[in-house]
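Quick illustration, no need to memorize.
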Amino acid sequence: MPEFPQTKKQLRRALLNHRRQIPEQIWQHKSQMLCDRITNWQIFQQAQNILAFTSFRQEPDLSQLWQRFPDKTWGFSRCVEKDLIWHQVTIADFESNMRSGAFGILEPRHDLPLMDLDNIDLILIPAVACDRRSYRLGYGGGFYDRWLPNSTGFKAGIIFDDFYIDAIPSDIWDVPLDAVITEKQG
C-alpha cells in the first residue's frame, strides 16, 4: 500500500486515483468476493430491510446481493439538495425504477415509495476508505455525515481491502460505523 497524505482532501484524491487504477477484471473479482463475504455474514442473513448503494467510480459492485436476495426489502438513496432520501426499490423492476441522478449516480425514481427508516436492519455504506477505528472517508459532500447520526440499523462500511487503512483524519461530526466489510475481512 502506498504512503498517503494526511489531510482529508489530499487523502481522498490519492485514494480515488488509486481506485481508478484497478483493472476491470480485478474490480469484478473483488466485488464478487465482497458479495460472497456479505452473503455469508450473519447480520446480512438476518436483515430484512437493507439500505444499499449502486456502484459509482469503481466502488464495490453489490448488485449481486439484491439480485440473489430479491425478497429482502431494498432501499436506495436519492440526493435531494443536501439530503439523502431513501426509496424502496422492487428488485424485479430494478432497471426501470432507477435513473441517473445529479452526480451521475444511479438513483431511484422520485415517485417510488419511501423506506420506513425506523425499521432498518442493515445499512451498506459506500466510502472512499475506512480506518481501523471504523471511521469512513466519504467524497466530501457530507450527505452521509448529515444523515448517519440520526439513522437506525447496523452501519457497515463497504470497501475493498486496499482502502482499509490505519487512520483517517476525523472531525467532531464523523460517526464511527459498526463494522467495516472488505473482500478479505469483516
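The first helix runs from residue 8 to 20.
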